[in-house]
Queue: 2 jobs
Job 1
Amino acid sequence: EVKDTFVKRSQILKEIRNFLDGREFMEVETPMLVANAGGAAARPFTTHYNALDENINLRISLELYLKRLIVGGMERVYEIGRVFRNEGVDTKHNPEFTLMELYQAYTDYYGMMELAESMYRTVCEKVNGTTKIEFDGVEIDLSKPFERITMLDAVKKYTGVDFTQIKTDEEAKAVAKEHHVEFEERHKRGDILNLFFDEFVEEKLIQPTFVMDHPVEISPLTKKKPENPDYTERFELYITGREMCNAYSELNDPIVQRQRFEQQAKERELGDDEAYMIDEEFMSALETGMPPTGGLGIGIDRLCMLLTDTTTIRDVLLFPTMK
């Protein structure tokens, strides 16, 4: 049974590559040892480079290098590789894991939704011979169109709290206290909306669901929605109560991006050691000019868990951190 799982894992990776090759994506490799570990909210592992006598990090994401390739004229790129996050180990997390990120010029998060849905459906059918799978005793149907719901509507649906009526950070904190949602003093309204989602909604999203339009506070690399600038053109896909992928219309305005990075730097000073740091090389690339771009990240290990009916991440890793 264990061997079968890893045979299937190999097939999943092959079919992802086949799918992306069919859409004219190019597979690339970017550095694992980086001066600035950006592109995600996580603590990096730090090491020392003796030859240059400087501290460097293991990457936590693939994002900032792949976007630089988009700036350089490579219009469809992807990478499947290990990333490293200095955090706890549980049934869904391992400190090193396999991430697939892709970027496509001249599209947006709706284009990424179509791509993600098609990829999940295609890979499942190729590997399992069907688009219906059983996970932990529940049938998951990947053949139907995936549900789409905004984070605002999802929180309202499952908690009755309507964040469109909550205008200030203070009101949001008061509602959080009423519902026993723990928050930090630095958190803003958008952060608290996200905490409500994590607490009350995530585990209920069993069938494939795109949760869209995240608050700007938690999406520092994402374009704002023009008609509602408190929210961004971002989605996450949830299946079996787990986040399966994260995607957005990439922020390509260097002036706004610098403002977002500066805001993140303030968050770091206020005690958020997972906040992003300003990456000047990435900023230089953005200032050269990045076309409108859609980006998508998929945790390969969680996809393997889904398609092999495995409830703990260590069972789809040949050599997990925790045996």
Job 2
Amino acid sequence: MDLKIENNIHKLFFQLIRVAIGNAVCLSHTPKAEEWQMLYEMAKKQSLVGICFAGVQRLVSQHQSPPEMLYLQWMGMAAMIQQRNEVVNRQCAELQARFSADGWRSCILKGQGVASYYKVKGVRLDDKDLSPLRQSGDIDVLLWKDSLSSSENRKAVVRYARQIDAGAVGSAHHVAVHMLQDVEVELHYEASYMCNPWANKKLQEWMRANVNPKWDERLGCFVPSDEFNVVFLLAHIFRHYVSEGVGLRQIMDYYWILSNSPLKG
């Protein structure tokens, strides 16, 4: 792709995101059919198809909508995302009920656990809940027992995971288990971690003391406190930055937390 065209598409893509989140009303120019197709492909690559469709819907009144077939395709993908979120939300509540019955305290991390922050409150646009349009992935659950130390909790979570799934695979901070047919579940004994052992020790101590679960009415289960999410997700993004790479969906999550958390002042 020509560098000038690529830069123009990137510019349009970020403008589309700004329209979606309530920070702009329209694009700088109406994209051509091929530009719209590239915007759609970029939204898919960044797992922002649903969020960007919210922007596409707003652009209809500005006479900047994509070609009809692409609009319908985009709308269909957004509807599938909403349907999947309904299923995954129910699964989160069912999983947490199971963990509670088995004697564990738990919180839904990331993904479904931060979707409630996705609320547009722009002065130029009507308030809108975008949480159903956030593209979900696997289900991350933080498990712990107050009576256990960090090292004891880690061993207990691993044992519990392998009771559920004998082939459960562990990593530095979680165990992946097959509990659901179409969604992977990761049981975390640590929400995240730092590579520096001293920094990691301080992080784990802080997170253990500040998880302070709160009830998410929309999700129907417990999620971490706002304070916890602000620190945890920043640490998570940093770790991805130095090892795996950061996607715009992660940046979007953090944007909404900073925008809609009571801590923002």
